[in-house]
């Protein structure tokens, strides 16, 4: 079974509310082999979320082809599941119902659903909260519910759209550890969108840099795992960070260009 | 002891109530009597709770349990109490019936129409036109078509609530965040499952506010229908009191309606709270009271419409 993800000359443009046509993706091509952890890094508004949404099937490309394994992506499918940036856990369902929602939609029988949800709730350390409402949980715990729901689906490809962006540093770090251990266990293909370079370097094998709708650089991240503070302070880590900052257009943040925008 | 604690905890509201009651009494004694009216222009409390209340016995329509003044019987406090109870029961019966019919059909229609974007677009303009109709002005028309009876009244109240809730339900459905729908799609849910398990529950948050407005509106509609064409109920009692310019009775009926409307509101609040008990933060009592105010003043028109 092959779960290679392929983008071939993918374009995506849509009408902005102002009537302006936005070219969110321009001629994007890459291939990701099964089991790879890919970070998609870029500044806000440069197309990294669109890239993920096109792969999810939530947004149709206006040109090119996206395929997962042998199949062309034409909409959401059971081979991909997604953790959203915002809190997308359904607040009117208990934690367990949330985790079982996808299984229920697929017609999985009750006992099996229960076993699967129990297993993954255990894995994300929420077994004691199975019958709680999401409102009784912290933001980090709700992200773990979303993770458990994705895990229960057993999809080949995990799509993560800045999933931990709204969490505090320590919660984020513990979720990184959790995500990496789950990835280690399941060896799924992961697409992780983030604007946080450090996060990308901690998690990914490979970093795709997105700027103005194009993949401008495809970097391998060979830092040894586990990537603790020492590894991240190492010379190669700093070099990688510099390369990324250079490619993502650090010149735009200098005061000169800012004042010219104002004028 | 509890009263003293209450006064200590809420000195301002207690002071306001005392001021209103005392001010009213003072006003009652300084306004001149009118030659044309059988009761004082501003009825002082001792008049409201004695003569005015007692005269309600004239509205007791039966000859059992209490003497019927219409057939020469005595006017008694007991008769007045029975009369008030009888007409209150009539009003409540009509209100609960009309409100139930309106809520069931209104939310039902809204959910059915809301599922199909095409139907939603077709229904939108006529529905908003119906919402603009002055409902109270349509009472005679309804009574002319269907009769000044329980059927006509139920259809009228039901219609008013129906219009409010169809629009509100469709609106709530449109306002469900795309995020939930996309998440459901990613988890493999079919359109029907997504609608039933995601869109409808998510819409309940906004719909709850509309239900509270409907509770307020149902009182306007019921009392209005009774005032204009029916021969029983609190609205009819009010019409009779107006006919005899009995200000004391008007005050009693107004207070009874206000208290019952508030109770209706609290019951709908309690019941609808159960439906959305999963919500992170329910509106505080303060904001609820503001909604209650809008419902009774604006007759339910406070819901914003946008497309």
Descriptive key words:
heterodimer; A: 263 residues; alpha/beta; six-stranded mixed beta sheet; 9 helices; 10 strands; 25% strand; disordered C terminus; B: 307 residues; mainly alpha
Overview of this protein structure:
The complex is a heterodimer of chains A (263) and B (307). Chain A is α/β, with parallel strands linked by helices. In chain A, 38% of the residues lie in helices and 25% in strands. Chain A has nine helices and ten strands. In chain A, strands 6-7-8-3-9-10 form a six-stranded mixed beta sheet, with helices on both faces. Chain A has a four-stranded antiparallel beta sheet with strand order 2-1-4-5, with helices on one face. In chain A, strand 4 (63-68) and strand 5 form a beta hairpin. Residues 253-263 of chain A have low confidence and may be disordered. Chain B has twelve helices and no strands. In chain B, helix 8 (178-186) packs antiparallel against helix 9 (191-229). Chain B starts with a helix and ends in a 9-residue tail after the last helix. Chain A binds chain B through residues 56, 58, 75-78, 80-82, 84, 86, 88, 90-93, 101-102, 105-106, 133-135, 149, 153, and chain B through 179-180, 182-190, 193, 197-198, 201-202, 204, 276, 278-280.
């Amino acid at each position: 079974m092959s779960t290679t993800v392929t983008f071939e000359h993918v374009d995506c443009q849509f009408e902005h509310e102002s009537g302006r046509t936005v070219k969110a993706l321009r001629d994007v091509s890459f291939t990701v082999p099964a089991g790879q952890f890919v970070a998609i890094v870029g500044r806000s508004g440069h197309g990294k979320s669109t890239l993920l949404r096109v792969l999810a099937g939530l947004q149709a490309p206006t040109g090119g082809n996206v395929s997962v394994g042998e199949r062309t992506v034409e909409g959401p499918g059971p081979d991909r599941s997604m953790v959203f940036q915002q809190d997308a856990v359904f607040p009117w369902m208990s934690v367990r119902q949330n985790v079982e929602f996808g299984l229920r939609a697929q017609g999985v029988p009750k006992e099996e659903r229960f076993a699967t949800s129990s297993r993954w709730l255990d894995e994300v350390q929420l077994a004691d909260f199975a019958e709680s409402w999401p409102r009784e949980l912290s933001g980090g715990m709700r992200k773990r519910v979303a993770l458990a729901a994705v895990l229960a689906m057993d999809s080949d490809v995990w799509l993560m759209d800045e999933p931990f962006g709204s969490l505090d540093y320590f919660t984020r770090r513990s979720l990184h550890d959790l995500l990496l251990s789950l990835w280690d266990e399941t060896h799924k293909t992961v697409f992780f969108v983030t604007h946080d370079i450090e996060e990308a370097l901690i998690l990914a094998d490979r970093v795709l840099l997105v700027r103005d709708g194009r993949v401008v650089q495809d970097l391998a991240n060979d830092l040894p795992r586990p990537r603790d503070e020492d590894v991240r302070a190492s010379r190669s880590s700093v070099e990688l960070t510099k390369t990324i900052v250079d490619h993502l257009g650090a010149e735009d943040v200098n005061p000169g260009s800012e004042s010219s925008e104002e004028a | 002891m509890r009263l003293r604690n209450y006064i200590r905890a809420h000195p301002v509201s207690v002071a306001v109530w005392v001021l209103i009651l005392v001010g009213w009494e003072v006003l009652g004694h300084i306004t001149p009597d009118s030659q044309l009216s059988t009761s004082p222009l501003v009825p002082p409390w001792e008049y409201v709770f004695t003569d005015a209340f007692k005269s309600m016995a004239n509205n007791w329509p039966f000859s059992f349990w209490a003497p019927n003044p219409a057939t020469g019987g005595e006017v008694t406090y007991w008769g007045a109490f029975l009369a008030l109870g009888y007409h209150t029961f009539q009003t409540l019966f009509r209100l609960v019936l009309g409100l139930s019919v309106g809520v069931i059909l209104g939310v039902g229609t809204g959910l059915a129409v809301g599922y199909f974007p095409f139907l939603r677009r077709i229904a939108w303009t006529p529905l908003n036109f119906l919402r603009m109709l002055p409902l109270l002005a349509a009472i005679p028309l309804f009574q002319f078509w269907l009769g000044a009876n329980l059927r006509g009244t139920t259809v009228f109240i039901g219609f008013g609530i129906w219009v409010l809730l169809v629009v509100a339900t469709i609106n709530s459905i449109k306002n469900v965040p795309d995020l939930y729908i996309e998440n459901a799609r990613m988890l493999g849910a079919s359109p029907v499952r997504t609608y039933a398990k995601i869109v409808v529950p998510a819409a309940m948050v906004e719909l709850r506010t509309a239900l509270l407005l409907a509770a307020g509106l149902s009182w306007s509609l019921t009392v209005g229908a009774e005032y204009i064409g029916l021969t029983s109920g609190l609205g009819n009692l009010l019409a009779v009191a107006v006919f005899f310019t009995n200000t004391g009775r008007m005050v009693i009926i107004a207070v009874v309606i206000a208290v019952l409307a508030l109770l209706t509101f609290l019951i709908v609040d309690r019941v609808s709270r159960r439906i959305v008990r999963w919500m992170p933060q329910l509106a505080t009592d303060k904001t609820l009271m503001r909604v209650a105010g809008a419902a009774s003043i604006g007759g339910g028109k406070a819901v914003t419409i946008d497309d």
